[in-house]
Structure formats: structure tokens, C-alpha cells
From TrEMBL:
<dbReference type="Pfam" id="PF17921">
    <property type="entry name" value="Integrase_H2C2"/>
</dbReference>
<protein>
    <recommendedName>
        <fullName>RNA-directed DNA polymerase</fullName>
        <ecNumber>2.7.7.49</ecNumber>
    </recommendedName>
</protein>
<dbReference type="InterPro" id="IPR041588">
    <property type="entry name" value="Integrase_H2C2"/>
</dbReference>
<feature type="compositionally biased region" description="Basic and acidic residues">
    <location>
        <begin position="185"/>
        <end position="195"/>
    </location>
</feature>
<dbReference type="GO" id="GO:0003964">
    <property type="term" value="F:RNA-directed DNA polymerase activity"/>
</dbReference>
<dbReference type="InterPro" id="IPR050951">
    <property type="entry name" value="Retrovirus_Pol_polyprotein"/>
</dbReference>
<feature type="domain" description="Integrase zinc-binding">
    <location>
        <begin position="46"/>
        <end position="98"/>
    </location>
</feature>
<feature type="region of interest" description="Disordered">
    <location>
        <begin position="151"/>
        <end position="199"/>
    </location>
</feature>
Length: 246
């Protein structure tokens, strides 16, 4: 039926297709027939009767879920192929036995910020031989970036707190008249930079929180900001950074 539809041409509307063929609609413009084989681009379209054996062959090397799907995407195609491969691998006892015994710990979520500079994320980034201290505002997702030169990370950070506490955004007070705290979130990695982050938070802010329990992955907003700053670091006119240190 699919081969006949490819030869005859697909209709202009998905609703005009027979029900079994509608799942091919997203790729209908890439389907062709070559020497009796239906192709999707350069990949062979596998009929339903051969999909199980094809998945068994793809998983023969026990390469894991992602590598098996990557291998399949190079040579074969059928609708819902990724989900089918995941189901086969999930049922593989050898694959389940070789999974890491200590999976990643769950992200520790914090309450979203409702005012500028209420919550800050901090981390270091390296680019072109320079070290950058990235500080991200929890509301806007933007930050100043400070270049750290010729200083070991275990020293006090050569940055100024005025970059992180703008005077035009005063902190509100609670019912007792005390100013609310400004938590600083870091990834809590077990290295020298973690101690520097803690000292910076203790010196300039109220408390140092963490996003993950002893796991070296930062939050999405901070990671995206680090990537952005690396892209902009070679164009100081677009993103000026103050040089710090003597």
C-alpha cells in the first residue's frame, strides 16, 4: 500500500490518506522507491514484519539506548522507531544489569524569584586563557561577567559586590523590619572553585544554597549564560567586561 502511494503520489491533505498511511505523512515528501525498496531519504523503510529482527540486530552490540538509536537513524526508518528501540532496550536484562549503580541525583528546586537580584546563580567559566565569574540574576537571566586574572581560585575573588547588588533594586523588608535574604546558588562541585563560591557568597550575600546534592551539573539558566558569555567574550564591544585584579 505504501509503495503504491509513493508511485501514485501523496494527496495534498493528510485527511485524504488511508488510515495506515497517515503515520508516514510527516516524511511523505522524502519517500521514494529504488529497486523495489522504499526509502526515506537514504534510509530503508522497514516493514512491520521485519522491525523486531532489525531492532535485535541494532542492539546486538549492547551499545546503549542513545548509540543504538543513532546507529538506526543512519540506515533504517519506520514511524515510531525511537520508541520501539527504547522498549526493546528497556527489556534487555544485560543492559539493565550494566546501568550505573549510582544514578544522578534529583535537582533541588528552589522557589522562583519575583524581583531582580533576589536569587543569584554563580559559576566560573574559562575562555581564551581567561577566567570569568558568571553571576546570573534569577529573574532576568542576565548578569555582569567579571574577568579574573592572575589569581588562584582559592584566593578571595577580585570582584566588587556593587556589580551584584544594584542600588536601584533595594531588598524588601519582612514583617519584623529585617531585610530579606539573597541566596546564591552554585553547582556545589567538590573542587577549589566550590570553596571560592562559598567565600564569595559569605562575604557579599546572605547565604549560599545549592541546586544539586554534590553533583557537578549547574542549572539550565546558568549553563546557558556561561555559553552566551563565551560566545561574546571575543567581542567586548558587544559585551563589555571589567578587568579585575592588578
Amino acid at each position: 500500500m505504501l509503495k503504491d502511494a509513493v508511485f501514485a503520489g501523496f494527496p495534498s491533505s493528510k485527511a485524504d490518506l488511508a488510515e495506515p498511511l497517515r503515520k508516514y505523512w510527516p516524511v511523505h515528501d522524502r519517500l521514494s522507491v529504488d529497486d523495489g525498496l522504499i526509502l526515506c531519504g537514504t534510509r530503508v523503510v522497514v516493514p512491520a514484519s521485519l522491525r523486531r529482527s532489525t531492532m535485535t540486530s541494532l542492539h546486538a552490540g549492547h551499545l546503549g539506548k542513545e548509540k543504538t538509536k543513532e546507529r538506526a537513524r543512519r540506515v533504517v526508518f519506520w514511524p515510531g522507531m525511537d520508541a520501539s528501540i527504547e522498549a526493546v532496550i528497556k527489556g534487555c536484562s544485560r543492559y539493565q544489569r550494566e546501568l550505573p549503580s549510582h544514578p544522578r541525583e534529583t535537582m533541588l528546586q528552589h522557589e522562583p524569584a519575583d524581583r531582580p537580584f533576589q536569587i543569584l546563580d554563580i559559576d566560573f567559566a574559562d575562555h581564551a586563557g581567561g577566567k570569568y565569574l558568571i553571576v546570573v540574576d534569577g529573574v532576568s537571566g542576565k548578569s555582569p561577567a567579571e574577568i579574573v586574572y592572575r589569581r588562584p581560585l582559592r584566593d578571595d575573588l577580585p570582584t566588587h559586590p556593587s556589580h551584584f547588588k544594584p542600588t536601584h533594586h533595594p531588598r524588601p523588608t519582612d514583617d519584623a523590619g529585617e531585610q530579606s535574604q539573597t541566596p546564591v546558588h552554585g553547582d556545589h562541585r567538590d573542587d577549589d572553585r566550590r570553596d571560592s563560591r562559598r567565600r564569595a557568597a559569605k562575604r557579599w550575600f546572605d547565604r549560599h544554597a545549592r541546586d544539586l546534592p554534590e553533583f557537578p551539573v549547574g542549572t539550565r539558566v546558568r549553563v546557558q549564560d556561561v555559553r552566551t558569555k563565551r560566545l561574546c567574550a571575543d567581542r567586548p564591544s558587544l559585551y563589555p567586561c571589567a578587568e579585575a585584579g592588578p
